Amino acid sequence: MKEAPLGKELYGMAIDLDKCTGCGACAVACMAENNLAYRDDETDKLRTNTWMKLYRLSNGKSYPKTKMAYLPRPCMHCQYHTPCVSVCPVNATKIDEKGVVSQIYSRCIGCRYCVAACPYHARYFHWWDPVFPKGMENYLNPDVSVAMRGVVNKCTFCHHRYQQAKDKAFMEERRDLKEGEYTTACAEACPTKAITFGNLQDAQSRVVKLSKDPRAFRLLEKLGSQPKVYYLTSQDWIRTQGDNYLKKEDRAKKAS
Amino acid sequence: MPIDRRDFLKFVLGGAVGTVISPMPWVSMDEVAKWSQRWAPIPEKGEPGFISSTCKLCPGGCGIRVRVIQKERAVRIEGNPNHPVNRGGLCPIGLAGLQYLYHEDIRVKTPMRRDGARGEGKWKAVSWDEALNQVALKLKELKAKNQPHTLSFLDGEGDGSQARLVKRFLQVFGSPNLLRPFQLREMEEVLTEAVHGQRLGLSYDLPRSQYVLSFGSALLDGWGNPTWTAQAYQEWRGDSAKKTKVVQIEPLASTTASLADEWVAIKPGSEGVLALGLAQAMVEKEWYRKESVQAHTTGLADLREILNAKYTADQVAGETEIPKETILRLAKEFATAKQPVALWGKGKGETPLSLFEAQAVHLLNILVGSVNQAGGVYLRSERGASQTTVKKDKKDKKGKDETPTETGSREARVDEALSLNYPLPGQRMEAFFENVSRNHPYAVNVLMIHEANPAFHLGAKAVKAALDQIPLVVSFSSFMDETTQLADLILPVPTFLERWDDQINCLGVPYSVYGLVKPVLPPLFETKSLGDVLLNLARKLGGSLQAALPFETMEEVVKQSAKKVYESKKGWLADGLIHEGGKGASFDSFDKFWEQLVAKGTWYDLENKGAEVKEKWNLRPATFKTAPPKPAQSAGERALWMVPQSLLLLRSDYWPNPPFLTKYLGEETLVKDRLVAQIHPKTAGSLGVKEGQTIEMQSAKGKIKAQVHLFEGARPNCLFVPLGMGHTAFDSTLQCRGDNPYPMLDAEMDPQTGWPVAWATRVKISKV
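Predict the joint structure of the above. Result:
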């Protein structure tokens, strides 16, 4: 698979875990924006569809030294040899020149290769029809189509908002977007401003500054798939869990 | 080759058997079934627009913007970026607000009258005229019999014009029986009356605090206004040079405890004692701010005597099971920190706590001089907090000879609050239901309920017993909740997205905010807002009521409140930049102001802060002479503590949990239809229970079932259960899922306030 050529735009995200309180606002905003349905029993977490998943981490120490932390996980939009894109037999998922990994429902044949390939469990398959109880269809967002049964769906970095931002810029006779014009529903909703979304190609953007912060790391970085979601933490135990290191692996060696 | 009859039959039979055995018929049936089913819905497109309003899902009063398609379909709620409190952020409950609006399965769509026995679930739809006439007739009857005091009203709504209208309606009608589910505000009034000599509210300047000492307050799980505490958390963890230290005192590694800088693991129920331990160290070692304490307070000498006698670090260390060094270190840190603040109110602050505990923690704020200081706690009088009231000017009153408190309100309250027995609390909801069930001190004839669900919080049995003594129970509810199911008449009210109202000040925020609530959409169903119903009743009853409430619609009432705001000639409307001070926006006329307020949704004045109290603050050491109320200590049989947990993603008040939030509950809260109890692995080992095993917890008052989840961050010998599950009403995401721990919380009455203090409860467990 060829690497996508880079243009002026490459979108990415930074999530500051020191600021994240695990409130779930990002998750709810995401479900509302992207027309996700819910079922009566959502306690089986292998069956639930949460584009923005909220991991609850524990440092594993016993009372009273225990510490919990939260880690919101959208799609990582891997830049290099995107695992899901490379296995899709029908071109239903693509990475575009802005770095957004898309999912086209009408092309998807439901083979779920991509679900298996994704190292982050960020892809979901609709085993059932999305059901909206009576009246609930009214709040569906007209900018996003509802994923039907039998297709894989996932976080799109709210790609429809990119289109809207571009349209607006075009009406104002601009070619380029200003920082913050295109942002995701989760970043917008976060009450502690832990989530920052922006253009990784713009050296002035906040997300670039955050991605270069000494506290920054990425999940499963060693796979080399270049995820574009950066996490920041000042706590080592979170970083260790995020990198999924084996005990025998030497962290210092990896860092160099 | 001839084909005889036998061959023919063989062929047909063989073919039939072969077809049935082959997958063909099943596959084709499956395909037909799939194709005949519906496809995913396609949302209708249209012109989008934004409408600014205010969230009424809690008393927090955050500014919201609602995205509306074609002016008829609300598709998204987001935070208003120009609002001074939430600044564009919003908590998950507010973001899921449309799930209340559009959830037809749980909404009541038309007025209904009970048809059959109470609680049987048989209803008959009636017209609004018929329903209102029935209520008006009953109220007229009470007036005629000179029993207006037998009308009671239980209102759980946050402060706003509608809530004040209820208050005024009752006052003029002549009933003292206005009740509320417990909120921290009630305790704030009792506390400030005891210490400062006035009934005031408290609010915390959290974003500017530099040392936060929280005595079990679920700061990040719904204490106060969740978005405001999130804003504060952002400041504490921000890039600025000042470093805020957050200390959480709690028996579980909860979200707040984990994300705090320090977690002090405490024995459940001893928070007040710890606060006094810190106070003792501060007073004895002279770490307190002498100028401030000398200037403002009296009673220090007596206080010192009690503290030294009963609350030395050694004694407190024994009681709280916190090392003495930690107590002394915390006392020193708190006393020497810049802009420190101590917080009380366990969990979300929805269950009463003892005056002992609240006063002990407030004492710390007084000792470090944090009262009415930046980053500390502000005293706020209702009038100072806002210039609004629904009271009309005197000249508007027509019937001069009829004074509002003409009859009835001189009668004692049913709940005995504000009486000689219980002079401090403004109301006692639990005592109300207890007294009503034995018709003490007099029978209640009508009970109206709005935004409250006592059947869930006090137990359906206890509430049913009380309601059985009341001839007419009217529920003003948008949803068919447990209490509404027990009513005689349901008058459905619209949600906050379909009506006029306002939010006067934001819960716990130290400045003045006026949030306008306006209909984003016309009402979806045949609903009328509580305010409109009361105005209609006032017109029907005439006389002093009509004179006192001379408004046609709720919109007029809100306009009247907004006029008071306008007349203050201060503050700003939420437009663009957030103004920290200045002389405020000016308008040519009220009409222009109103027009702009309706468009922008919020007015605020960040300069209006603390209320001055002229008298010296009485430290009231008497409170600390007696020990704090403790749950029954029948330790032998019930050797374990059950400690309730508050979660932001699980509403535990009147409002049902929105499905989006329930979806995100983890394995430590709910597994299928089982509530989960978190327990330390060692305790589980000694009890012989395993992960996933079902146990029954029995307190002196009741029992619930739960599934065991081992959690190393739980205090040994404690069981932690979440509050908010176990509804018998609402939709299939909530109905009959988990058990409801509320009714089994073993409450001990606080002798000073008369409130049942129920937090940690003694239980014994058995395997199921």
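The longest strand of chain A covers residues 11-16.
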